[in-house]
Amino acid sequence: MVLPGASDVAAPAVTVAYKGSFIDAASNKSNAVLDFTLNETATSYKFAVVEGNITKDEAAIKETAGKIVDGSLESTEGTASGSVLYPLAVSGTFTVVAVPFNAEGDAGAAAATAFIYSADGAPDIVQVQTGNYTVHVTDAKDGYDCPLTLKAGDGFNEFVLDGLFGFTDYAFIGEYDPTTLTITFDGTVLGMEDMGPRWGYGIAYVDETQSEIYTILSNEADEPCVISVNEDGTLKAFTTSLQLVGFSAADGKITRMYEQIEANTPITKGEAGTTARTVNRRTQLSTALRVNF
């Protein structure tokens, strides 16, 4: 049913996908291959390519689209669906932002897609190796080797790290930057994305008395945790520190630091196996001792 005065004509829309790179034999220049698809009411589109991944930054996409529409940002125009060669001489992470237009020149909603690009003559983009890893955790005694698991996430350049301080199924989401060979974790936990970064928030009670609660701090605060990546794609080291601390369930004051991953602690490929400590942590997360607040 169409209400009086309402239009059933679809707004102009465009989708964009990165299809890879192409070297023009005549000019020996490298190009990003971008594929655009217009809907039935879109007669043209304009696009621009910006550095970095802004696909999760709605304000940045809106600003970029606005500049494309008003002409303050240089853009490229197309009038039909299909692939376009966009000259790009440097490697890195980029975002293509496209704005569709109808025959009257009205703009539709912007589309944005991020991509990793390797230009001709530039080093290949290092692909992160997922799988099992090990990091040494220090404590008041001898410490222990903690098994970690790295998996690919759902988002662009997204990875999920599980097993910190033995807490499995409490995994952190990070974003890989191939230009700096780092993965940055802001504290967002898989399955709890709507709650934001969780550094400093309760994970599980320390024991059955429920008087003390575990939490993880990054650089003794809530700063991003950064892991460096080797040239072969394996994880290299925690360049920042992490602390497993306890705080009082009564007043929220920190009681003590239980364990720590010190800054610049190397990470090795392969699983260290489980310890009594990691088994206990897994049990805490799977019982009523889990708090998550």
Word description of this protein:
It is a single chain. It is built from 2 helices and 19 strands. It has helices spanning 58-70, 276-285, and strands at 14-24, 29-38, 44-51, 76-78, 82-87, 92-101, 111-117, 131-137, 144-152, 158-162, 172-177, 182-189, 204-205, 212-218, 225-229, 235-238, 242-248, 254-261, 265-269. It is 8% helix and 44% strand. With 293 residues, it is mainly β. Strand 17 and strand 18 form a beta hairpin. 30% of the residues are buried. The strands form 4 sheets. An 8-stranded antiparallel β-barrel has the order 8-9-10-11-12-15-16-19.
Q: How are strands sequenced across the largest beta sheet?
A: 8-9-10-11-12-15-16-19
Low-confidence stretches: 1-6
Oligomer: single chain
User: What percent of the residues sit in helical stretches (DSSP H or I)?
Assistant: under 10%
How much of the polypeptide forms β-strand, as a percent range? 35-45%
Q: What are the secondary-structure elements, in order, as H or E?
A: EEEHEEEEEEEEEEEEEEEEH
Helical element count?
A: 2
**What is the count of β-strands?**
19
User: Main sheet, how many strands, which sense, barrel?
Assistant: 8 strands, antiparallel, barrel
Q: Tell the overall outline.
A: elongated
How large is the radius of gyration?
A: 24 Å
